[in-house]
Amino acid sequence: MSHMPTLEAASLPADAVEVGRIADAWGIKGWFKVQAFSSAPEALFAAKDWFLQPAEKGAKHFSGTVLLPVKQARFHSDTIVATSPEVADRNAAEALRGARVFVAREHFPKTEDGEYYWVDLMGLAVLNREGQTLGTVRDLMATGPQTVLVVGYEQDGKEQERLIPFVDAYVDKVDLAAKTIVADWQLDY
User: Fold this and answer.
1) In terms of CATH, what superfamily is 118-183?
2) pLDDT in tens, 107-143
3) How far does Cα 67 stand from its chain's mean position?
4) Cβ 57 vs Cβ 100: under 8 Å
5) CA-based radius of gyration for the chain
6) Sheet of 171-175: strands edge to edge?
7) Three-state SS for 50?
8) Topology of 16-107 in CATH?
9) Ramachandran sector of residue 144 (left: φ over 0; alpha: ψ -120 to 50; beta: rest)
10) Is residue 32 within 8 Å of residue 24, measured between CB atoms?
11) Which residues lie below 8 Å from residue 53, measured CB to CB, with a gap of 6+?
12) How many Cβ atoms are within 10 Å of 26's Cβ, its own excluded?
């Protein structure tokens, strides 16, 4: 028997960004753990409505997109836990396991000058000061105090990667409108 909470069907907002997934039930009162993508844990805390879609793999307890009203989301040691008025107990929370969590972009806190959400940097073209294409941002890695751009490119028919520290010393400019990043970096680094 499924204890899936009754969540209303919704359509994903046009500006929705996938920010994490529901990892597991937490405790007995319907709280659940959320595995946030490092791009935007703040958005999980700021949004009062999360949009859920079923996991790509494994058991699906619902289909399409549903709206999950969130009463509270907070850090608990190194994980994020949240609760919803619609999720009454542990069984209901377990039924959400694996669900993909999206929030509307409008709920992301504003970034400071020079700060970017990882999700905004993905897919940007990276050029050097000479205008040569270094590749496309495929991923980002947090390495201690700094973030590193993982820039993918093709060479001799093979996929390659360049790792460029996302720091002022190397990154001259991020132009979200033009979808480009200019870096002080050479093709042979």
Assistant:
1) PRC-barrel domain (2.30.30.240)
2) 777 777 777 877 788 899 999 999 999 999 998 887 7
3) 18
4) no
5) 19
6) 158-165, 146-155, 133-143, 125-128, 180-183, 171-175
7) strand
8) Elongation Factor Tu (Ef-tu); domain 3 (2.40.30)
9) left
10) yes
11) 12, 64, 65, 99, 100, 102
12) 19
Instruction: With 0.90 as the threshold, say if the pTM is over it.
Output: no
DSSP designation for 43: H
In one letter, which amino acid is 47? Answer: A
Q: Over the stretch 77-87, which tens digit does the pLDDT of each residue have?
A: 778 999 999 99
Residue type, 114: G
Find tokens 């000061």 and name the residue.
Answer: 129
Length of the chain: 189
Where in the chain are the domains? 16-107, 118-183
Q: Transcribe 123-166 into DSSP letters.
A: T-EEEETT--EEEEEEEEEEETTEEEEEEEEEETTEEEEEEEE-
Q: Over the stretch 6-52, which tens digit does the pLDDT of each residue have?
A: 789 999 988 888 888 999 999 999 999 998 876 557 788 888 999 99
Distance CA 138, CA 147 (A): 13
